[in-house]
Amino acid sequence: MFFKKKNDAPRVVPEHIAIIMDGNGRWAKKRGLPRNAGHAAGSKTFKDIARYCNKIGVKHLTVYAFSTENWKRPAEEVEGIMNILRDYLKDSKNYIKENIMLKFIGDRTVLPDDIKELMLTAEDDSKNATGLCCYLAVNYGGRDEIVHAVRDIVNKGIKAEDITEDTISEHLYTNYYPDPDLVIRPSGEQRLSNYLIWQSAYSELWFSDVLWPDFKAKDLDRAIDEYNKRNRRFGGI
Ligand code: IPE
Ligand code: IPE
Ligand code: MG
């Protein structure tokens, strides 16, 4: 997919961008607001960035919304995040009008029943969209995902000698779409925090000090420009 830069040089838009939406809490703290105000602002940024990805022709966008480790946070914060997710899901019909397909990755079995229902409805309502495929990682952890994959493989009775890298990939939540080309983490932290740890084996990583609620289309453009300068070798020369 090509996208014209100002100087008319074509640039490659990554097929799959993954984003760790981090820095909501610090954004709120800086303003003397409760942490959940940061999560609400982060949710708005997510919608803007997804819309922008759809516009410039990104095919897959996977965003980290809630990790398997985030349950450690105070109950009030977890509840606030779940409420923001609820509001987003109830509103998702509007989003679907924009031709964006919505899917969820992660272990949803432990989520509140109404959220599970809303997720299924959003997935079903948007399944024929032909634009951006947008995946929200909710109660997602890369190690947890691999544990689930191994259990499935063992339960199916697949023989040890028949297990390949593809067998593992096919049993992950992401089994039906390509690995991320570019992983973006705002907020100044430089770690994956258990995000897509199998899938990002050869992804390009890009970090920014901008806190997620302040992240704008121009920041994404900067990441894509940097991506265009990278030389992906995949172990070759
Ligand atoms: C990311 O923002 C959102 C979630 C983890 C749910 P944080 O809440 O981690 O924000 P900081 O890192 O505390 O600033
Ligand atoms: C990663 O951010 C999870 C999400 C953005 C949903 P965290 O804020 O939880 O990660 P750590 O604790 O700084 O590694
Ligand atoms: Mg954080």
Structure report:
This protein is of the alpha/beta class and 237 residues long. Helix content is 41%, strand content 17%. It is built from eight helices and eight strands; from the N terminus they run βββααβααβαβααββα. It has helices at residues 24-30, 35-56, 75-90, 92-96, 113-125, 142-155, 165-170, 217-229; strands spanning 2-4, 10-12, 16-20, 60-67, 101-105, 133-140, 182-185, 204-207. α1 crosses α2. The longest helix has 22 residues, at 35-56. The model has no long low-confidence stretch (mean pLDDT 96). Bound molecules: 3-methylbut-3-enyl trihydrogen diphosphate (IPE) (2 copies) and magnesium ion.
Which helices and strands occur, and which strands form pairs?
Blueprint: E1 2-4, E2 10-12, E3 16-20, H1 24-30, H2 35-56, E4 60-67, H3 75-90, H4 92-96, E5 101-105, H5 113-125, E6 133-140, H6 142-155, H7 165-170, E7 182-185, E8 204-207, H8 217-229
Parallel strand pairs: 3-4, 3-7, 4-6, 5-6, 7-8
Antiparallel strand pairs: 1-2
The protein binds 3-methylbut-3-enyl trihydrogen diphosphate (2 copies) and magnesium ion.
One 3-methylbut-3-enyl trihydrogen diphosphate (IPE) binds next to helix 1.
Strand order of the largest sheet: 5-6-4-3-7-8
What is the residue-mean pLDDT, rounded to a whole number? 96
Tally of strands? 8
Main sheet: strands, sense, barrel: 6 strands, parallel
Oligomer: single chain
Q: What proportion strand?
A: 15-25%
Distance between the termini: 24 Å
Morphology:
globular
Instruction: Indicate the radius of gyration in whole angstroms.
Output: 18 Å
Low-confidence stretches: none
**Pairing-aware structural class of the strands and helices?**
alpha/beta
H-E order: EEEHHEHHEHEHHEEH
What percent of the residues sit in helical stretches (DSSP H or I)?
A: 40-55%
Bound molecules: 3-methylbut-3-enyl trihydrogen diphosphate, magnesium ion
Output the number of helix runs.
8
